[in-house]
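Quick question, first post here. What does this chain look like in 3D?
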Amino acid sequence: MPRKNSTDTKIYVLDTNILLHEPHAFLSFKEHDVVVPMTVLEELDYIKDSKKDVARDARVSIRAMEDLLHDASPENMVAGVSMVGMGAGETAPTGSLSIYTDLSMAQSQQVFTSNENDNRIINVALHLQKANAPQQVVLVTKDLNMRLKAKGAGLAHVEDYRTDQLISDIKYLSRGFHRFEGNFWDKVKSVDSRTEGRDTIHTIPKAMLPEAYINEFLLDESNDFAGLVEAINGDSLEVLDLGYERLMGRHAWGITPKNIGQAMALHALLDPHIDLVILTGPAGSGKTLLALAAALEMVVERNMYDKIIVTRSTPEIAESIGFLPGTEEEKMLPWLAAITDSLEVLHKHDENVKGSMNYIMEKANIQYKSVNFMRGRSIQNSIVILDESQNLTASQLKTIITRCGEGTKIIVGGNLAQIDSNYLSAVTSGLTYLVEKFKDFSGSATLNLDGVVRSRLASFAEENL
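> Answer (accepted):
Ran it through. Tokens below.
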């Protein structure tokens, strides 16, 4: 058992989905004690041998706990083993980790008598709350229904796992651009401009935009100015003058922007110095179409990259069609219909649309890959398009991005209003985490596309349904 009746520390009881979301989550509770119910270990044991994408996360979590507990006696594992030395820096844990079995609990001590795993975990938390009063016991789970059940059963404190949550509300998510009221130049009190080749760079006071970050676009309401923050030097910003009309004149593979958001996205997509482009926005805002058009332009027309790899999360693929006949590409096609739809749009004026598509797919060396099989690879000199990333965790996105080797550009797109995962929300999605973590990285750019341009029907539905 953890330290009993201490009001200075809390006891956190972890659900299985927490350790699948973040395998080392038990190290994130600083001076507080962490309890992992035996039921959680049983679930991790089942998942680690499955064909699910989270099987790896289950194995990582089990190994991390084994590293801490391998020398502990059975009595010590129940009493709690100190986690001192397991972390680094200010967040290094100083509490303990213990494994608690609900099998030792008398039937009379259990609120839920049915044997469902969720009920068994809640019973452990309720028992610890009673046995350790007045010490605060907190059940941590990403399962909303489990949180409701636990509260209804009498557990005073139930929380989501928020250690990797960087913003409290989605409205605070970085949009990738800042729009000044009125005219931009009316706001500038001092400026030093210089010319580098064909580019004009303005040095302005940082006080104009104290929260500015690298590769943030600057616009004004009058549509007279468009710029890009290229560097932050102390109290000044170096802004590349893009020119509003010139920015709107960008094009790729026959596609021209329909609004300033798409124009900024195209600029970032076509910039060879930007390795990561993150596109967020509602359905129909043009994320996939712009990404594919820019990729084809850079691979086929400019010969900047060797191939295009298209991928997205496919949680059901291993269980449902993983063992059926067919290549990986054939199995991926149903999940990547958005890409083939976009290819059809890009070639709709060709006489032989299907022939043009097949030719371009071969010419651009377009490959459809499953996220499940991206681990262990090193992708060189390619463009990677990651679609529907709002359903991935930060850990899963890290796995994919770290596959990108020299000369590779990755385009990550997603709609935070269409999250299908049972355990993610807009603020806890890996896409949100990615936007906030990379906004100060000079090799990345983020754009929120806020206009639906697919059709007037799609626009009306987005705004009114």
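Residues 55-69 form the longest helix (15 residues).
The first strand starts at residue 11 and ends at 14.
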